[in-house]
Amino acid sequence: MSRENFVFVALLLAFSALPPVSGAAERKLVWTYPCTFAYNDAAGAQYENKISSPECDFIHAKFGKNSARDFNQYTSTAQYVFLDDVAGESGQAYHFYQAVIQEVLKETDPATLAPSLAPKDRLAKLMQFHGVLLSNTYASFKPFQWESPAESSYLYKDGGGLPKSWNPYVDPVRERVSLLNQLIQPLQGQMVGDAATHLASKIEAMDKLKKLSPTAEDWLAKLWGGPPAAPGGLPDPALPGPTGSSKAGAPLLALTPPYSPKLAPPAPLPQTAQAQAKYDNFRRGYKEGLQRVDDEASIAWWHYSGQTQTVGDPVGKSNLVFQQQGGSCALGSQFQALEARGKITPTKDDSAMRAFVQKAQQDGYFVEIRDKTGQTYGGTSGANLDKMLTAYNVPHTVKFRATQQDMDRAVLQSGDAIVTVEAGSFWKDPNVQGGHAVYVTGAEVDKTGRVVGYYFNDTGTGEGVRFVSVADFNKAWTHGLITFTPSNGK
């Protein structure tokens, strides 16, 4: 048993063995929650040894609100012993917290990074600093965390931020967090810019070679040392061609309009600040952020070299994405599909989505229950996955054992769909478990009509235009699929 737990148990045993002492002369303390300790005599003076804020938070965290009632029944001797002992314990914990904060601030000082550090390496370090700063800070003042942060929710007015009682402990690092954010964001944008510059140089070289050789095979051979290998891979690892199974599937719907590659650089790369905010490439971390940037540069190259084209409007539909509150992923996916069809008018704030979720709850299609710590449970069951689409009279079908052909046809028909996935696999985060629903906003299709990957708006992370290869998608897909019926009924 730790000293902390031993002291707590010993105090409880001691208090239970000490009977109240009556007598008008005794100056007992009265604990008024949250943290007022005053004598109960006529003078009503405050306790001379005023309780510090950390000690008060420590008492809250260790003993809770109901302990005030028991404290007021103990003798003055027991009360004083309790407060003195708690003062010592909380003092030690606070000293440890302060030492951790100083060490964390030292370890995460961006001034310690060498000026010669490459931008990519600097970004990696700064994002690492950001994670260490927050996780270590929260852990260091755990003995004082008597309030739990409530999750954000459309059904509860509070939640989504840190409890006010955490502010004195978080404030010392807030300035550092702000500084890191100011340094990180431009570097993330630079990663996109560097990829765009690299792509532009490839295209410029290709344009020059095309003037010398009339066929794609010839200029690809001159630039890369050989034509692209089937089914379309390029030797350059920085700009690969689409990959996937070369096994022919069932015939897909003909593309409309007919496939006609345009040798221009249509760039999925988000080169404006507004686009970068919607893409939110680095939302899941440094490694996944760089992967997204590489994917987007590769897709732009595929477009230029006539290997693939985009079906749907993933870039345009990125304006629909938002960060969900609570377990509302299925509702968030339906909301975007309804907005894309003009069935819902969005608002600058979240009032439209809030009303949407409240209606779903009232109609029995959504449930959310919050426990005493502020964590929420519930969401949308499989049986109710599409109920709000039905409520808004949007033609669609639902399958819970959909095939790859079902998925491809759905996206090629209408340009969008809703799917269910396993969140941890979809986000490539082994610490996450559970089902998740996401809005599909398009697909990337090669010259044979084969789908090589899909685009997603994910309200779980706030990412838009995220490209996921067919192989990676199938690892996460739980085969739930909502298909939208085209307006022409075909």
What would a concise description of this structure say?
About 45% of the residues lie in helices and about 15% in strands. By secondary structure, it is α+β, with helices and mostly antiparallel strands.
SSE topology:
Layout: H1 3-17, E1 29-32, E2 36-39, H2 53-63, H3 67-71, H4 76-107, H5 119-140, H6 167-210, H7 216-224, H8 273-279, H9 286-304, E3 308-312, H10 314-317, H11 329-340, H12 351-362, E4 367-370, E5 376-379, H13 387-391, E6 396-399, H14 404-414, E7 417-422, H15 423-427, E8 435-446, E9 451-458, E10 463-469, H16 470-476, E11 477-484
Antiparallel strand pairs: 1-2, 3-8, 4-5, 6-11, 7-8, 7-11, 8-9, 9-10
Helix pairs in contact: 1-4, 2-4, 4-5, 5-6, 6-7, 6-9
Distance between the termini: 70 Å
* CATH classification, class level of the largest domain: Alpha Beta
> Which CATH architecture of the largest domain?
Alpha-Beta Complex
What is the residue-averaged pLDDT? 84
CATH superfamily of the largest domain: Phytochelatin synthase, N-terminal domain
Structural class: alpha+beta
Low-confidence stretches: 1-24, 226-240, 244-265
Helix content: 40-55%
Strand content: 5-15%
The shape is flat
Number of strands: 11
Tally of structural domains: 3
Number of helices: 16
Succession of helices and strands: HEEHHHHHHHHEHHHEEHEHEHEEEHE
Radius of gyration: 30 Å
Please give the largest β-sheet.
7 strands, antiparallel
Stated plainly, the CATH topology of the largest domain is called Cathepsin B, Chain A
